[in-house]
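Researcher: Structure prediction, please.
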Amino acid sequence: MSHLDESMQGGGRPRPTLGNFLYSKTFRTFAAQIVMAVIVLMAGLFLYRNIIDNLNAQNIATGFGFLEQDAQFDIGETAIRYDASDSYARAFLVGLLNTLIVSAAGIVLATVLGFAVGFARVSSNWLLSKVATGYVEIVRNIPVILQVIFWAVVLRNLPNARNAMDFYGLVFLTNRGLSFTVPSANPVHEIMGLAFAAGIVLAIIGSYLARRHREKTGKYIDMLWPSLGLIFGLPALVWLAGGAPTALSIPVLKGFNFKGGATISPEFTALLVGIALYASGFIAEIVRAGLQATPRGQVEAARSIGLKPRFVMRYVVLPQALRVIVPPLTSQYVSLMKNSSIAVIVGYPDLVNIGNTVMNQTGQAVEAIAVMMLVYLTISIVTSTLMNFYNRLVAIKER
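Model: Predicted structure follows.
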């Protein structure tokens, strides 16, 4: 019996052989990727070896051992304890946290502004729509670095502390920043924060269960007020159980600046406002495109059966609009975080600003830049992963 006859036994299908596998499209594709990966890896190793040899020839230290050395420089704004005797690694950590703080605040502000302006763009109110259009055209077409510099100049030309803009003795705006009243430190506040987080989780679970109930029975359960009750009611109950502390820390002018309360620096504010406004213009256009992507016939059909406007928006427009909005919105969030690196222009101590200082003091530019690149790469990947997960959650499931 020939080899072909043997291979055709058992259902008439040829048996897989080594020769067939080697010439298959799957193997060729996999082999090409392996070869390309090896080429890229070898090229990277060659460049790295070349850099190390050149640095050694100039008696410049290499490696990441410098991260354990004392930084010997102060940082103006820190989210954690830090002083000049701490290591360069901790200095990088401070810069990372500052970058995450301004990026998170920028994402929230840009999202709120972007969605508000995006809805205004499709409004039937002519004046509101034109104002929103003008806002989008202005903030999108001015480079983000100029917007950050503009707000920095505006804030630095505000009155000094002795001539501060006073808002009812509780908030003061000066060229040193925005000083405002906050509750005095109390252990119950930490528990309130946990209760707030728990309220959000319970509200999400409740909304999910209410949706499942509606899908099974057709009966709608309005979870708006119960959700608000959980989110704000639980912290209120903790506050009452903790003795309802009402002590406030009010900013008071002492010398050339305010003491007490909390202060947002002009550097942080300029960077935050600049990158958030710039991103909000793009987000507004993304939202407008998503809303207009919903077929008008479906909206009219929903209205014709008597659905309230908020139900039309929630159950007809938004589920379809989010499929268009979320993917480009992810890119805007990643871009906003990367734009925070221009903080060096206004003196805000973000990761890049601190990285430049470390680089100037140690002379180890390759390692410092590698750390910054790795951090931004990680942040971008994590952000994209979370947004892609959310995109899968809001995707319309075909049944």
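Model: The beta strands are 165-167, 171-174, 177-180, 182-183, 248-249, 252-254, 257-259, 262-264.
Researcher: Thanks, that helps.
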